[in-house]
Structures are given as C-alpha cells and as structure tokens.
Amino acid sequence: VQLQASGGGEVTAGGSLRLSCVASGNIFEIDTMAWYRQAPGKQRTMVATITAGGIPNYIESVKGRFTISRDNAQNVVYLQMSNLKSDDTGVYSCHARARYWDGGVVTGRYYDYWGQGTLVTVSS
Questions:
Q1: How far apart are the C-alpha atoms of 52 and 28, rounded to whole Å?
Q2: How many CB atoms sit inside 10 A of residue 105's CB?
Q3: How confident is the model over 57-96, as pLDDT tens digits?
Q4: Is it the case that residue 108 has pLDDT exceeding 90?
Q5: Which residues 6+ apart lie within 8 Å of 67 measured at CB?
Q6: Euclidean distance between CA atoms 120 and 101, whole angstroms
Q7: What is the spatial distance between Cα 92 and Cα 100, in angstroms, rounded to a whole number?
Q8: Which of 5, 7, 33, 103 is the most buried (most CB within 10 A)?
C-alpha cells in the first residue's frame, strides 16, 4: 500500500489550501485516515483524523478552520484548510490504517502506512 500526498504550497495568512492523499496498492479496506504535521523544530503531531464511517476529529487549534473528508471509493483523504495562520506552517503527512490482499488472502490485521510529506508555508 502506498500513499501519495499533494496540494502543499505557500500562501499568505488568511488563505486556503486543499491537501489530497491517494492510497493505492492491493487494498482490501482502509480504517482510519489522518493528517499529521511537523512544524520546524518540533515533533510531528496529529492534526485531524477521520474514521471509515466519516466521523472526523480535530486538534483544538484547527477546529472551525480545517475540514477532513474522504472518498472511500477512490481511497482518498482530503484536508481543506482555511484561514491559515503562520502556526500552520509545516510538513503535512497523511496516514492510513489498512488491510491488503497478500497472495489472494486478506491480511489478518491492519497495518500503518505513511505518505511522503507535503510542505505548507503560511507567510504573514
């Protein structure tokens, strides 16, 4: 299973960006998907998660500004970011827990997968 993230860039404060992450491979099913970010000089932290049923969860600092969504048919997770602030700057990575086909058999447990990061820079 591979995850490919895209959509990062540089915006001024108050602007918007939409991140996308596509999962591919011999996927049987994907459980929770999430976006993490790593600000300069800091550890990676969770920003938002979404269950297979579409229930989102956000860290307090992005509530009301970010929206996570997913398309289960296309194995895609999105992060719509609005009213961006300089503190939102960082490398954003997507994460998924998935089961996959392995030689005609579905794996018995979920595995964790990470996409490459996409840089978001918010200038004031």
A1: 13
A2: 9
A3: 999 999 999 999 999 999 999 999 999 999 999 999 999 9
A4: no
A5: 56, 78, 79, 80, 82
A6: 34
A7: 25
A8: 33
- 111 class by beta-carbon count within 10 Å (0-12 exposed, 13-18 middle, 19+ buried): exposed
Q: Per-residue pLDDT tens for 33-42?
A: 999 999 999 9
Mean pLDDT of 23-32: 96
Contact between 98 and 29 (Cβ < 8 Å): yes
What was the pLDDT predicted at 92?
Answer: 98
**Pairing of β 17-24 and β 2-6:** antiparallel
